[in-house]
Every structure is written in C-alpha cells, then in structure tokens.
C-alpha cells in the first residue's frame, strides 16, 4: 500500500494491473453502475481484513460478493426459486441477493460476518465485469467510502475518502445509477426487501408476480441497516421548500429556482439518483448546513428518500457502511 493510490485508466493495461494487485491481496476501488466498490479477493482472509480496516467498518457488518457469472453463484449458495427468477430478470444489474451459503463455499469467513448467508451481485458496469473476468474469482466489495460517510460515485470521491488506505482506483468516471443496489433476502421462498436501491420495488414485484415483504415482518438479519448512515459532516434538513440564508439548498424539480445545486431541473428521479451523492459531497465541502427539497417517493425515489433520511438521522457511535 502506498500514500497515494495508483490511478488506473479504463483500458486493458488498467484492468491487468488491477487484477494483479487484487491477486496479491491488495485493495482496488472499482466502478460499478451503482457506486464505486472497494474490491478485495473474497477468498483471501488478509485482503478481506484490509477492506474492514480501510473503511473502519464494524466486523459484524458483512460484505457483498461480486461475481462475473451466474454459475459462480450456484457454487456459493443454494438459490431459492424466487432468487433464480430475480437473477434471470435483473443480473447483471443493481440487485443484490442474500441466500444461504453452501458448506463448500471457500469464502473468507469475515466476508459474511459469521452469518449463514451471503450477499451476491453480478454488476453490469463493463469495467467491473472485465475486472471480475481478469481476476477470475469472487470479489468482496462494499461501497468505497469510510464507514458511515457518503458513498462514492466518482474516483475523486474515493480518493478523498480512502486515498491513503488503498492500492489503486480504476477510474471509470461517474456511476450512472448513483445509488447502491437493492438488496433482497429470502424468508424461505418469500422475497424480503432488505435495502431500497437502484432497482425499484415495482420492477421486482412485477418480475415475481407477488409483493415483497417488509424486513421487520420477517425473521431476517440485516446487520447494516442502522438509522445513521451516509452522513455528511454538515447538518442536513429534509423536505425544505424555503431554506434559511445559512443553508445551502439542493433542489429537485422546476420550482427550486434559488437552489445552489440541482438534483434534476425537470424532476427526473433517475437523474436525481445519479446526482444525489455527488451533490451531497459537494454541498458538504461548501456549507455547514444543507437543506434539500422534497423528492417524491415513487420508483427509485423511495431509495433516494431512504438515503436522505439516513443522512439526516442523528449520528450513532456505530454509523455504518
Ligand atoms: O451497489 C452496491 O450494493 C455497492 C456496490 C459496490 O456493489 N455495494 C454496497 O456495499 O453498497 P455495502 O457494503 O456498502 O452495503 C452492503 C449491505 C450492508 O448493509 C450489509 O449489511 C448488507 O449489504 N449485507 C451483506 N451481507 C449480508 C447478509 N448476508 N445478510 C444481510 N445483509 C447483508
Ligand atoms: Mg455502503
């Protein structure tokens, strides 16, 4: 590990170098379509320990394992039928499935924080896919931010947060979804929403032909879902139509003409999701008080509002992920 991470370009040489670093147990931040992930060899206990150390992440909060192909998922877990349906519809893409581990999985134990399940995702970003192919195995990758801080959607965000603690960043520009993957767990065959994210509840329910259950109603562990999360340094106030003079106002939609930053002039939720974390990073650098306009709760708006509520929640000593 170096003082400054290597910045790897999104070409063959960059991918080869990133795979080489991962193979020797170093950490590489990689772009995905959702946010940048802090990747390490999921079978190497030292690499996994480095991920937890670099993020300052509590050991009880498990990591998502990223794969290049569906067959690799079959080697690691027993997929419920509903999980297969979702994988067929949405992988590769912004969806994470939590399923029971097979006994012969070979993942480093810390990846799953001792749970009998593991979270799996096939990312759609071409660079993430190329890197997974070149590395040739499962990569554990949480979002590439210090635990409890705003997630990174550019290589600059990664460097600002974790710069001295990682070997390299593969620079793929801005992430186009901009919010983390939707996480679905299973209570037997029943699909349960564990985290709202880049894939909407409506799309998932349409694919399943049934409604998702709420996490609280199911007996499912979701260790990373604490209230305070994604926290900026500045104070954040939500649903603000009339900011005070001290507040930096982040707007949404055409009625926010005085806003310093805009999530989407036209009120497009996908555009707002893609810009959300960058807007919070920038507002946090410019102001001590941030106000944000109301964002509708439909579609991916539910995930935007989830992140905003967490960003505005009182800080706990153990803010996570
Ligand atoms: O889009 C994403 O999901 C990004 C990119 C990099 O893939 N990753 C990401 O990872 O958001 P992270 O570590 O920041 O969030 C993963 C969440 C945590 O809340 C963790 O608790 C939960 O997934 N998780 C992981 N394994 C789990 C399991 N076995 N059961 C329940 N929740 C789990
Ligand atoms: Mg995270």
* Biggest beta sheet summary: 11 strands, mixed
- Biggest sheet strand order reads 1-8-2-3-7-4-6-5-9-10-11
Spans of at least 5 consecutive residues whose pLDDT stays below 50 are none
Would you list the SSEs in sequence order as H and E? Answer: EHEEHEHHEEHEHEEEHEEEEHEH
Q: Which class do the helix and strand fractions yield?
A: alpha/beta
The tally of beta strands, per DSSP, is 15
Give the tally of structural domains. 2
* Count of alpha and pi helical runs: 9
Q: Can you characterise this structure?
A:
By secondary structure, the protein is an alpha/beta fold. The chain has 2 domains: 6-214, DHBP synthase (Alpha-Beta Complex), CATH 3.90.870.10; 235-312, Rossmann fold. Helices cover 30% and strands 18% of the residues. The protein contains 9 helices and 15 strands. The strands form 2 sheets. Strands 1-8-2-3-7-4-6-5-9-10-11 form an 11-stranded mixed β-sheet, with helices on both faces. A 4-stranded parallel β-sheet has the order 12-15-13-14, covered by helices on one side. Helix 1 (12-23) packs across helix 5. The longest helix is centred in the last third of the chain and has 18 residues, at 269-286. The radius of gyration is 19 Å and the shape is globular. The two termini are 22 Å apart. The model has no long low-confidence stretch (mean pLDDT 94). It binds threonylcarbamoyladenylate and magnesium ion (MG). Threonylcarbamoyladenylate binds at residues 32, 34-35, 37, 61-64, 96, 98, 112, 115, 117-119, 121, 141-143, 180-181, 183, 185, 194, 221-225, 321.
């Amino acid at each position: 590990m170096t003082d400054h991470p290597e910045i790897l370009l999104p070409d063959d040489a960059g991918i080869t170098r990133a795979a080489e670093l991962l193979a020797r147990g170093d950490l590489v931040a990689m772009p995905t379509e959702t946010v940048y992930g802090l990747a390490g060899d999921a079978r190497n206990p030292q690499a996994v320990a480095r991920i937890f150390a670099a993020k300052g992440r509590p050991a009880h909060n498990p990591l998502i394992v990223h794969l290049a192909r569906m067959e690799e998922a079959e080697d690691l877990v027993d997929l419920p039928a509903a999980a297969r349906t979702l994988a067929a519809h949405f992988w590769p893409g912004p969806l994470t499935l939590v399923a029971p581990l097979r006994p012969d999985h070979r993942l480093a134990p810390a990846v799953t924080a001792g749970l009998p399940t593991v979270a799996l995702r096939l990312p759609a970003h071409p660079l993430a896919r190329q890197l997974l192919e070149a590395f040739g195995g499962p990569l554990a990758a949480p979002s590439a931010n210090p635990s409890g801080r705003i997630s990174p959607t550019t290589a600059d965000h990664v460097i600002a947060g974790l710069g001295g603690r990682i070997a390299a960043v593969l620079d793929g520009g801005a992430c186009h979804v901009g919010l983390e993957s939707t996480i679905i767990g299973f209570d037997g065959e029943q699909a349960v929403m564990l985290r709202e994210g880049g894939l909407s509840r409506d799309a998932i329910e349409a694919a399943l032909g049934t409604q998702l259950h709420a996490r609280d109603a199911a007996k499912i562990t979701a260790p990373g879902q604490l209230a305070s999360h994604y926290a900026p340094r500045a104070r954040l106030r939500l649903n603000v139509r009339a900011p005070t003079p001290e507040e930096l106002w982040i707007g949404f939609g055409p009625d926010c003409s005085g806003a310093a930053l805009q999530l989407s002039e036209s009120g497009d939720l996908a555009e707002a999701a893609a810009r959300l974390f960058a807007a919070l990073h920038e507002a946090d650098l410019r102001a001590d008080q941030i106000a944000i306009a109301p964002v509708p709760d439909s579609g991916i708006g539910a995930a935007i509002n989830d992140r905003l509520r967490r960003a505005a929640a009182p800080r706990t000593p153990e803010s996570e992920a």
